[in-house]
Amino acid sequence: MSSWKRDVASGLIVLAPLIVTTYIIAYLYSLLAGLPFLEQIDPYGLGGGLVIPSSALRVTIVLLVFSMLVLSVGYMMRTAVGSLVENAIDGLMNQVPGLRVVYNASKMAAETALSDTTDLQAPVKVQVWDGMRMTAFKTGKTTDDGRELLFLPTAPNITTGFVVEVEPSDFEETDESVEDALTRVLSAGFGETSESGIPIDVEDEKETKSPPPQ
């Protein structure tokens, strides 16, 4: 690959995520600012010619209300009442044909995306066939016959995958962290991990060389 192609590729790798992120933020901002029940909010003057636009006030109000709602519901989920409410909502949504599929899929995606990586169990290598290995994660659960329940995610979408029952002898634990394993799966094998290759002690190699003849 010529140098200009490498420069273009490197520039796109840096700028494309920023452009996509900026576009999504701008789209969400315009969506929140255009909510119909906040149209009566007027710009607020701070004095000295400084004025806060009405769109900024609308977005700020929505974010504050949403943040308070999330914190309130999250605090409630720590209690017994929260579990009862969640079960009631799940039961109600599962009674609606068609909508229950969307509800359960979105809930599973949110749980997978928003859960802390420290809650995930250690990654393992599952032996499949002909010496092939696949990356999976322990769930901490076992079957009645002693098999380990493993979650085998798909790449690059880790919200989908398979729950497999594997004999302890059919997988091996690794020393890598959960973050390294997730990086490899999310990037479809192209992402860089914390491993930077085989370390080489250059100083030791120089010290082992014999001194030049006098």
Strand content: 15-25%
Mean pLDDT across all residues, rounded?
78
Provide the succession of SSEs.
HEEHHHEEEEEHH
- Give a count of the beta strands, DSSP E runs of length 2 or more: 7
Shape type: flat
Please compute the radius of gyration using only Cα atoms.
Answer: 26 Å
Largest beta sheet: strand ordering: 6-5-4-3-7
Query: Which spans of ≥5 residues are poorly predicted at pLDDT below 50?
Result: 195-209
Structural class: alpha+beta
Task: Give the terminus-to-terminus CA distance.
Answer: 48 Å
Helix count from the secondary structure assignment: 6
Helical content stands at 40-55%
Largest sheet: 5 strands, antiparallel
Question: How would you sum up this structure, described in words?
Answer:
This protein is 47% helix and 17% strand. With 214 residues, it is α+β, with helices and mostly antiparallel strands. The strands form 2 sheets. Strands 6-5-4-3-7 form a 5-stranded antiparallel sheet, with helices on one face. A two-stranded antiparallel sheet has the order 1-2.
